[in-house]
Amino acid sequence: MTIRRPSDAHAQRRARPARLSALLALALLAAAPAGAQRQAATVPAASRQSPLPADGTAQPAGPRAGTQQVNFTLKQLGADNPFQLRGVDGVNGVPFSVRADQVVTGARLKLRYTYSPALIPALSHINVIVNGEVAAALPVPKEQAGTTIEREITIEPQLITEFNRLNLQLIGHYTTDCEDPFHSSLWATVSNASVLELTVTSLGMANDLALLPLPFFDRRDVRRLTLPFVFAGAPSTTTLEAAGAVSSWFGALAGYRGASFPAALNQVPASGNAVVFATADERPAGVALPPVSGPTVAIVPNPGDANGKLLLVMGRDSAELKKAAQGLALGARALSGSTATITQIDQIAPRQPYDAPNWLRTDRPVRFGELANTRDLNVSGYNPDLVRVNLRLPPDLFDWRGHGVPIALKYRYTPRPVLDKSTLNVNVGGRFLRAFPLRAVKDQQGRVTQLLERALPDGSIPETANIKLPLFQLPAQTQLQFHYYYDYLKQGACKDVLIDNVKGAIDPDSTIDVSGLPHFIALPDLAVFGNSGFPFTRLADLSETAVVLPDKPGAEDYTAYLTLLGRMGESTGYPATGVTVTGAAQVQSVASRDLLVVGTPQNQPLLSRWADSMPVGMGANEGRFTLTSVYSTLLDWWNGAELSRDRRVAARLSVSASGTQAALAGFESPLQSGRSVVAVIGNTPQGLQAMTDALLTPEQLAQVQGSLAVLRGKTIDSLAAQQNYYVGRLPPWTYAHWWLSKRPYALVLMIGLAALLLGAMLYLTLRARAAMRHGGKG
């Protein structure tokens, strides 16, 4: 990619964010009252960021002017369960981050906790630790033991840096004599409803493309990204394709947080950040555009917000606009200055199926070191954290007859002093799979393994194991978890001394291999669409996908389209540079593609045109669903059909659907067999927003399954009311076995025909031999 910058670009070359933040802080101090100056002067340069609210509410991305207060519960920061602090030195905690465009001026922790009545107050306490430094030590008086205590702790802003960790540590003792360091009376519980409260002040940032994706997306911000996209009144399909590439890029950056992109027509948000798309013919109102001589990307201030920014994606026509969007999505790291003109983009190699950067490679074994940082594969202590390896698999892997996914596991650990019950436990998505015993320095006969010690100067024991993971335990997105469990042997009174010097590691050269599994899946299956964007994400750039919008779409239709593409970018980790956008009237031109249909019954004519192919029909106050009969279910069971799928439509039911907001329907394309259609339907434009929000909410997304998902309030009801079609390819012999296993009647018929054929052959053979004998006698 070649970039041309304006003549004054050298004055705004790639800036260092830390230096920029320091200059802005100095300016802020100069303008502040004397008292405020003294307070802000105590904030280190590294702490000039703050997280935004993590309550999941959709608000425009970007800082607010002035001072504000933001709250996190420990659960929002990642503590799924209350902290259980046990033993003489129990520790647990969560990370939290701070935005690059905000400065922390105050912090408080509103803690809810309970502790054991057996703790000796003079010897026990609970430490609040921020980044390794003790922020407060909480006493444990006898009169409050066993009750829920609420306490506010002030945290000095100097302790808060860019990336932080908040730990709670129990120092517990129950006797002044010899004690068991793991005695059951040594405990404290900290509620995950405890709140971390931060007071922050917004800071402006330079108009520099080198800072991208800041300030539009900040990886320190743990809440959902909400970034408005601004268009002229009626953007062209090419402009929408450009916007889809950008939204999927931001969706990939947002990752687990999720991202939504509310569309605005001729209206720039009054505050915060936004992305603006403009050409000579499509110029949104309220934005002063710089001169454009080609595909151009620029950053300018938001006219209504001194701290807000507008990311301008421009071109003289829609083709140049799309080129600018591709340059932004594929080469943002090469941009700098306030404005950059993209003069050339090298030919992008076509994407291959299943090569999405976020997906596990299917052409070779994959090392754990490619999936996790090496430091995260190492743990220490008698109560270590889990070693986590995140996996994202193509959702159409086929492992019939359960051969499993092979893992060549390599791991190391500090050998046990004697043989005990210590193990390495292997879990998949929180479900136990295997346990491997940890060996001791001495064998069962008590002989010292001197040869082993010489071969292992670091004192650790390397082990290997081959594991077969059942594919049904590996959904599209899951996690391998390795837990070193150490047995604690009690030696008697006054002899139980805990020396916490044990370590464990999963070798980064361990591998997982799915290259031997074919791709074959029964569709429709909205679960794989909701979790992975499949089948559209089969090609990471969505080059075999067409999005069909209404012929006269509104802002809600654009919002749904952009948010869905952001969701697919999160799945693949790659921008949707190959997606095609068209209207309902031109759908025949994209018949060879998988189709994503967006709209309401009022503005999307395909919903009525394809009603006979769809498992649902919706109007403003009426919904139609396809049902099956008991007879069809029994017949399908005899034919080998899966009970939750493959059911023949026996009746169609229309019901009052005033409480139904939206539906998600999957079915085979009426235009070409083997191609898929997923329709995102709202009974009103607001219903589209409700459905895209549901796809970004993990609790609701888990309910999306089958061929139809109906949204009513916060509840999603999923149905399987459509016959399956199959996508992918199996080896011939495997396909024959699988086909017969699904159709026992055919197997019985084939066996009968084979028996008849064999009997006929034997009859003819014996008759010929008998004729020969009679002929010989004559």
Task: Name a few traits of the molecule.
778 residues; Jelly Rolls; transmembrane helix; flat; 7-stranded mixed sheet; 5 domains
What is shown here, in short?
Belongs to the AcsB/BcsB family. By secondary structure, the protein is α+β, with helices and mostly antiparallel strands.
What is the element layout, followed by pairings?
Blueprint: E1 2-4, H1 17-31, H2 34-40, E2 67-73, E3 83-86, E4 89-97, E5 102-115, E6 125-130, E7 133-139, E8 149-155, E9 163-171, E10 187-190, E11 195-202, E12 225-226, E13 229-231, H3 237-254, E14 259-260, E15 263-265, E16 274-278, E17 296-302, E18 305-314, H4 318-331, E19 339-344, E20 366-367, E21 378-380, E22 387-392, E23 405-413, E24 423-428, E25 431-437, H5 450-455, E26 461-469, E27 477-485, E28 503-506, E29 511-512, E30 520-523, H6 526-532, E31 545-549, H7 555-572, E32 580-583, E33 594-599, H8 606-609, E34 616-618, E35 622-627, H9 630-639, E36 651-656, E37 662-668, E38 676-682, H10 685-695, H11 698-701, E39 708-712, E40 715-719, E41 725-728, H12 732-742, H13 744-777
Helix pairs in contact: 3-4, 3-7, 7-10
